[in-house]
Amino acid sequence: MKKFLAQCYIWILMVLLYAPLVFIAVFSFTEGKVMGRWNGFSTRLYQNLFTGQMQGSSSLIAAVENTLLIALVSAAVSMLLGTIAAIGLHNMSGRGRRALTFLNNIPMINPDVITGVSLFLLFIFLHFTQGYLSVILSHISFGTPYVVLSVLPKLRQMNPNTYEAALDLGATPSQALWKVLIPQLRPGMISGFILAFTMSLDDFAVTFFTRGTIGLETLSTYIYADARKGGLTPELRPLMTLIFLIILVLLLFINVRQAKMQKSE
Amino acid sequence: MASDEHIIDLKGVSKSFGDKKILDNINLYIRKGEFVTLLGPSGCGKTTTLRLIAGFLAPDEGEILLDGKDISGIPPYKRPFNTVFQRYALFPHLDVYDNIAFGLKLRKVPSEEIDQRVRKVLKLVSMTDYEERDVDSLSGGQQQRVAIARALVNQPEILLLDEPLAALDLKLRKDMQIELKEMHRELGITFIYVTHDQEEALTLSDTIVVMDEGRIQQIGTPTEVYNEPVNSFVADFIGESNILNGTMIRDRRVSFIGHEFDCVDEGFGENNPVDVVVRPEDIYFTKKEEKTQFTATVRSCTFKGVHYEMYVDTDTGYELMIQDYDAYPVDSVVRLYIDPDDIQVMRKERTCNTFEGEMADETHVEMLGGTFECLPQAGLKAGDKVRVEVAFDKVDLLDHQEEGELAGEVHFLLYKGDHYHLTILTEDGDHLWVDTDDIWDKGDLVGINFAPEDLKISKRNEA
Fold first, then answer.
1. Tens digit of pLDDT for each residue in B290-302?
2. Most B CBs within 10 Å: which of A168, A177, A263, as the mutation test of the B interface?
3. I need a labelling partner for B13 at 20 to 30 A (CA). Which of A25, B114, B289, B346 fits?
4. Which helix (H) or strand (E) holds B432?
5. Reported pTM
6. Domain of A93: which CATH number?
């Protein structure tokens, strides 16, 4: 009986967590304008999405493009900055390292709204024109700590003598960095990149406050605006289903990699 | 083998990390083609010396010369040395071939030549057919061979080895020692080897540099270092030994363990205190009464494979260790003698503790970071700079640090036949030396006190 209740509990949790996603996925295969009304199976919405034959399609596609561009650029820069920061942190001693690691963690816990508003005020204060650049800079600022966190354990696992061994064999410090250090840190850097990418992809609050007034829309701000205009564009349903599937595949990829790496150690 | 030409000279090299002095005025030369071992306990500065030569560290003072030219400004990647690291430090993302070819590829050596040289060096370390293997899939011994190959393939003038065999098990370590020795003979290049294992040092080296606390204690061939240690540290660290207090009566005559012996040492003066070392295999049993120098009672006898190890109490109450091929039963009384050749006499580094201090008032003296009561000192007033002497056996050690005026830690201990001679390191980093009958262990925390009447105070002249 006890076991049965425990089983029920986990299933109820799972249903609550995944029901909305399943709901959207199911209703992406029907044409109904209003969610919740089944008009028979159809892939029309998917066709519309890819052929662009729908109301306001150009701005939706533009929003998707913006989202991807911002996520890619900010994740790439975060990866670079975060890796350098992690190497620096790793080589610091005791007190300074603990203090900086703590500071690195704060942006991750800080509520998005506060990050967004404070960045907004900062850009105003600096008279920085808000648009693509300000959004990308903001996303870099919250993506970098995730890269630091995923590269640090790789540095700890690494034999500290390998860098010296490279120098010893005739590599200049920059050759040693590229040929010995980076290859050993690569798995951590890739995990960090993927994390920063997904954080950027689903960000709403920070983007909303830092995009300025030039009409820059990402997927999240587009949906927000669309919903306020009176009902979601039906084509969003297949789009969200696809995004969910892509993220699912990415996550599986990361987990399988980690399991493999743990096994080989 | 080793020529007289110096390849490396260390002149007055010192190095500190923070407040801690790791190396203190190291002077050392290494001859071309020599197998030199830096030997000492952990923390003695041997690895730091190696890292200075490799170029990973720069000396605070002094200079390092290669073929007579200062190389302080040359970064490690431009020095013609290669290093074998303690934990191998192979590149885990490269296979065996690419690990070994790493240095050659950086120098843009043509690929056919790389191929040739990698194969040749793999043969040298008996790892042919391992080219494609992932380094993580190799055993410790195999990884070590790859690390040696990776260093040797660059044809360095000097091969630096930092405890390369420390992580291997005993059998493998012995085999690798022989192979290293053969490699050295075959290649004819200079090897600088760091180890804390005295047996390894004796087996491998042309020259051994014994280090302790950032200073060179002795430089010599293995036989010199073993047979003629210059001080009790070297005698204790290398091989097993009986280290005893003695008195040099005159040239070629020394007294210790309550008996007088002929010896071969001269120049220690008359009636001067000295340290005497007798190796356990150099004390002989005899049946003849006329050969007997002293008698002793066997206390314990342990079989050690090749020989027996016995502890005996002499008729005068000293404990000695003896190694012999024959066993003598416990509690039997045996006759013993020592050859004059086998008695090694060493100058004592010090005969009592000497501290510099300052009078606080007429009955108190400040020294070692504490204030101690002393007998009233006529003619000395507060603020006078003084020298304080305390005999080794007049230092009180207490079980609890807080009970003493000073707190310290047992840093080194030496058994001298009938008592222990301890080196105590105080919290402020001062050393003091204590003779005691009590048993302490290395690392024990102790409180330190002096009785007022045991402080011998004299005025110190300001230089």
1. 889 999 999 999 9
2. A168
3. B346
4. strand B431-436
5. 0.78
6. 1.10.3720.10
